């Protein structure tokens, strides 16, 4: 997965807010197959390999349900290692009466479902990059029906879904934003991403290293949508992992040049996109 390891900048971690931590832990463990790496009374760091956390849960004080028509999380996306993994989790979800949607995006094959609080999760596999179709600087993507018949031919006989594969990574994140012009400037001129697909005037897909997207942004909750309350279910933050300290310093400099604030908190660098989505800048 060359797009999700150094020297490429990638999304290493996502933290979401939930109403009931124990209920969410049961879902992410029993349904999706994560393990707990660390847990407190209000947080849980989840892992697939027993060593690193790609997803965390947080139950804020005085938490309120997910708010509609706001900026924030559209979905976070878990990238599985193989097609047989995707086929096996389809069987697992069906056997456990878990509702899910699906799509063929040309570059990938994806499932969509929600956690108990309505946080949307994409679970997907990539097609080989040699199969992606580039038109100049943009990669072709679509929302086509998923071919389940072909996918399920990849089910491994006798193998049932028990755990999320150890090599699962955080593939990308897709965000609701309030507008696109300043958002594009922030992610391109500030964080150094490339726009790799424009979905009309409603969405942008951005990436490092010619991936189909590490970040998607859209205005589907309305142009001018407000940020949710801090204690609302939804996105708390996501983490960008840079190759080395100089790369992070360069991003910090560029962010400041376009007027974005960068805060340093206990050796952590924090910034916010124009819609208030919190981003941690890590090395």
From TrEMBL:
CDD domains in the record:
VOC_BsCatE_like_C
Q: Which terms does the record give in the GO molecular function aspect? A: lactoylglutathione lyase activity; metal ion binding
SUPFAM superfamilies assigned:
Glyoxalase/Bleomycin resistance protein/Dihydroxybiphenyl dioxygenase (SSF54593)
Q: Which UniProt keywords apply?
A: Metal-binding
A Pfam family this chain is assigned to: Glyoxalase
InterPro entries cross-referenced by the UniProt entry = Glyas_Bleomycin-R_OHBP_Dase, Glyas_Fos-R_dOase_dom, Glyoxalase_1_CS, VOC_core
Q: What are the transmembrane regions?
A: none
Residue ranges occupied by any VOC domain in the UniProt entry = 10-126, 169-283
Which protein is depicted? VOC family protein
**What organism does the record attribute this protein to?**
Siminovitchia acidinfaciens
